[in-house]
Amino acid sequence: MKPARFVYVVYIAATPEETWKALTEGQVTRQYWGHENVSDWKPGSRWDHVRSDGSGKVLLGGTVLEVVPPRRLVITWVAPEDAGDRTKHTRVTFEIEPVERIGVRLTVIHDELQDGSEMHRSISEGWPRVLSSLKTFLETGRPLNTWAGAK
C-alpha cells in the first residue's frame, strides 16, 4: 500500500492555551471526546487514549515525539493490538496557531498511514467528529454527541 496523510484544519474561538489543555488534559478530553488522553507529555514518554468509563481500557496509544506548548504536539498513534508492528504506527501532529480576531487555527496532520487501511478509513471519519466536538466544547462549554448517527 502507498502512504497517505489526512489533514484537518479548524478555526476555534479559544486561546492557544485553552486548545492545548483540551488536547492534553484527560479531564478535558473526556468531556468532548468521551475518553482521556493520558501522559506526562514529555518527548519519549508514552501517551494513552483511555476509556473514561472506569475500565482503564487503552483504546489507542503511542509515543510523544515533540512537545512545544501551547503550539505543537507530535505523537505516534497505534491501536494496542498493533503496538508490536512498526508498520502500523502512524504519526499525528497538532499545530496551534493564534489568529487575530478569531482565536486559533488548529491543524491536525495524521500521516504515515497506509492508503486504504482500516486506520486510514477510521481516522478519516473520526477526526472530523472529534475536532468538531472540540470546537463546540471550547466555544460553548457543551460538546457534540460525537458519535450520534455513526454508522
Written overview of the protein:
- The two termini are 26 Å apart.
- Helices cover 26% and strands 39% of the residues.
- It is of the alpha+beta class and 151 residues long.
- It has 3 helices and 7 strands.
- The longest helix has 23 residues, at 118-140.
- A 7-stranded antiparallel beta sheet has the order 1-7-6-5-4-3-2.
- The model has no long low-confidence stretch (mean pLDDT 93).
- Helix 2 (26-33) packs across helix 3.
- It has one domain (10-111, 120-140): Alpha-D-Glucose-1,6-Bisphosphate, Chain A, domain 4.
Write the layout of secondary structure elements.
Elements: E1 3-12, H1 16-24, H2 26-33, E2 35-38, E3 46-51, E4 58-68, E5 72-77, E6 90-99, E7 103-114, H3 118-140
Antiparallel strand pairs: 1-7, 2-3, 3-4, 4-5, 5-6, 6-7
Helix pairs in contact: 2-3
Q: What's the architecture in CATH terms?
A: 2-Layer Sandwich
Structural class: alpha+beta
- CATH level-4 homologous superfamily: START domain
* Largest sheet data: 7 strands, antiparallel
Uncertain stretches:
none
What is the count of distinct domains?
1
Shape: globular
Count of individual beta strands: 7
